[in-house]
Amino acid sequence: MESFFHTLKVELVHQCRWATQAEARQALFGYIEGYYNRHRMHSAIGYLTPEQAEQRMTG
Predict the structure, then answer these.
(1) What is the pTM of this model?
(2) Which residues form a coiled coil (predicted)?
């Protein structure tokens, strides 16, 4: 879990400034759901994206 928060801070939080809390929430949601959970390679699953790992498991 600590690794996730480090990655989040390095790849998003320290790179951006938001005018409102709503903008920050939207950016965080977009990062997590749109990039981190779908397109970013993860070492725990053999450096595949979650989508690739799911496709391999379901055939």
Answers:
(1) 0.67
(2) none
- For 37, residues 6+ apart whose C-beta sits below 8 A from its C-beta are 50
pLDDT one-digit tens code per residue, 4-43: 899 899 999 999 999 999 999 999 999 999 988 888 898 9
The label of the residue with tokens 């989040």 reads 8
For residues 21, 38, 46 and 13, what is the CA-based torsion angle, rounded to 10 degrees?
A: -20
Can you give the residue ranges of every domain in the chain?
Answer: 2-58
Tokens of 7: 């990655």
